Amino acid sequence: MRSLTGNYILVYYTARVNEKTGHPENGDQTKTWQPTQYANVVRHVPSGIYYARLRVKGKLIWRSLKTERISIAKLKLADVVDEEQKKAEAGYVKTKDKILIGDCIDAYRQKQFRPTKPRGQKDVKALKPAAIAYYEQRVDVLLKSWPGFERLEVRHIKERQCAEWADKARQNMAFTVFNHTLGILRNIFDFGIQAGARYNNPAAGIMRESETGKRLALPDDDTLRKFLSIWPETPNFGSSARR
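The structure corresponding to this sequence follows.
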């Protein structure tokens, strides 16, 4: 029964891959797929592209490795296995719908800017109107600092893009403003995760800024000597301090 099911799955994926690559069906699955020296890598003969074929928690997964070189396919396989295992552990269920950042922001607003998963009692309490207005301002700041952000598909955004945004935002925002905006960015992605658009948060690795007071900048030696040189010439300088 298992081998029969496996054959049906192989026929299904063969037809699917041939349709995507534009290669006609030849009816012989053994000529369409070629095994390799690696257990989870197979080669699609008509196109020459290597595919990952693995089973995670009982689910058979096929992923194109997008290369015609076996050495590169082997390297990409490790990333695919790691990603699929993380998806399975997170209980990720992929949605067929196209979810944009704007959709996640709308969901965030509908929940009155409360996170998808409360981390404490403060995340459960409803925000006051003034606080909601503040969150709206922070969302506006985020959208202005990342042009076109709301039109991007959630699943396509990379950690690199978030890091690039953070590098620019740090230069133009106060520390507190940056940290609050970063928190909103993470919450927006969490709504995408909840909807099944992706399994991880690409902004999770961005470090917050320290909100402690700025370090006192003392004058250099030249500035200090110049200041001391004019001190005696200044009328009544420091007279109030000597009283």
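Residues 2-21 form the longest helix (20 residues).
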